[in-house]
Amino acid sequence: MVSVSISVSQVVTSATASDEAMEVAKKSLFAMSDTEILEGIYATHVVSHEHDSFDVRSLFSITQSIIKCSKQIIDNIDHKTTNVTEPIGVFDYLIQIMLNLKPMATQVYADTRDGITIAPSFSTPLCLLKSIIREVPCKAPGEENAHDATLKILNKVSKYSWEAKAVLALAAFSLEYGEFWLTARHQQSDQLAKSVAFLKGVPVLLKPENLKQRGQAVAQLNNVIMSTLQVIDCIFELEKLSITYNELAPLISPSLLVMKKLQTYMKLKQLFQIPTEIMEVMKTLIFFKDNVNTTILDGSTKKPVHIDVLRTTNVLLFISSLDISEDYISLLKTIYDFTKKSNEYKIVWVPVVEKWTTELQVKFETLRVKMPWYTVGQAGAHIAGIKYIKEDWNFHGKPMLVVLNSKSELQHSNALRMISIWGKEAFPFDQKKEEELLLSLRDTWFTAVIDGIHTSVTEWIKQEKYIFFYGGDSVWTNQFKEKASALKNDDILKRSKISLELYHVEKNANNDAGDDSFNTFWSAIETMFHIKVSSKQIDDVVRQVQKLLSYKDDKSGWAVLIQGRRIVTIGAGSTIYTVLEKYYTWNQQVTITIENFGQVFEQQHKEEVVKIGHVCSCFSIPSAARSTLAAMICYECGNLMEISVRYKCCHVKK
């Protein structure tokens, strides 16, 4: 029984091996990470354009028959001795559904013997199977032994397809496994079987005391074997279905592109599971399989280059529709100039267009001319991996910058957000760097995200001035401006050398996207919200952002007071306005100086908020991707907020 369990743990859990993998094998298995183990296995695979040298399905059919017959023998012994039953889990249930699918067309084989489907030209790869089983040593079971044997076995099957590797490993195991149980079944009636069974230790295993002791192990081993068999069978069933769909392609030409995208999606899913050269991922992401032109445009020379230029580099994928502003291009030009010297980072524009028109083609060419980095595709071309970009990277039309390293490992799902705040200080644009930068933001976060909204604002911040940012409907903003302007020109403030400026966050009446302070301002605040929430940092900064967002659509007004880069207070229009109205009362209670004006104003505002009592918030993030939505706590009452399209507080007054 020991030798059988060793065989399963070492043969069935294998993949492939090569010289590079053998180097990895020298390192203790327990000292290696999952990534190192996968790299060792994946590196052994020899990419071959030749077909497998034997009929894989015929070998699998024979293997399947051996294992199922062996299972019947085990079940008879198992139920008589241990009463162990196998529960049907969710995975087994799904497998059963898959196995019960009836494809519209299947491949026909010429010879079927007792339920075993064998191709007429099938030749058993006996020498290879014997060679594989010889690599399974008779050592005590353990992960180290299994890993070493795995790499040795996979060396022998390195040139075969992944499906063939799995079948060969299982077939080699079934050769030993089936012989073991065959002799167990016939040892009482056949002298030859009895002798072979004796050499294999069958009588020892079948002793009642051993069966009682090892019955559970036999049942568990049997479950592992059957699960492995079902998975491989499922792979072949999926292949049959793909053959069926390919045969129907001429009849469903409108769906052909969808099918190709689905195939690309599944391939990308597999590629991103293991370290893969970035160039191979880019080929799959951008080009359809039948596209022989694998070139991209070098924006610096305006000439096409082979996609090989991305080999061994980190890639910044700028993914967008054609509705992008000059601000994004200007922002990335700064990063392009910063990274082009080292040649370690390449920016690649991936334009996403569902349906091309002549107008969009012209717009594409206009945008591409402005970009000095690489651009994929031509006007009218479609991106092969659009499904993956939308579903796994959560692209919903808004520009994003996906960062991949040279092994195609995701470093950041959207670095555009933090680059828009910190610029080249965000280098190397990964998640770790973003977390470091976020930790540095406390009461200066507001100016970090809105700095640059207007040249005057930038200058006021540098001069450490007090600044009121305010918004709301025209009635309230006019009233606020009148009161705030009076405060700005107050003699006490002037004598104290307190400089106060006003900035109205308003929508542009002419709908000029290039001069819309409203959208620019709130987009920056939403950006900060995305960064903090996606990084799971729920702190005072998030509560301030949440509070400010709740005022976005509030017609009754809002205001933020800052001094230089530091936030003084954030409040609703009613409370801020009341503080301004009472200025001539509270300025008599304390001597106003440039140092304490902010503290005094904040204290007066807190007192007004306490008088009114808390009002629970409600705010929306229209551009929020599903992956960034997170539970929020109401900043007023501390209760959980319900998440739908909008965040709104679930607080109920007692």
UniProtKB/TrEMBL annotation:
It comes from the Eukaryota. Transmembrane segments: none annotated. Residues 444-512, 519-651 form the Sieve element occlusion C-terminal domain. Residues 33-246 form the Sieve element occlusion N-terminal domain. GO terms for biological process: phloem development. InterPro entries: SEO_C, SEO_N, SEOA. This is Protein SIEVE ELEMENT OCCLUSION B-like. It comes from Prunus avium (Cherry). The lineage of its organism: Eukaryota, Viridiplantae, Streptophyta, Embryophyta, Tracheophyta.
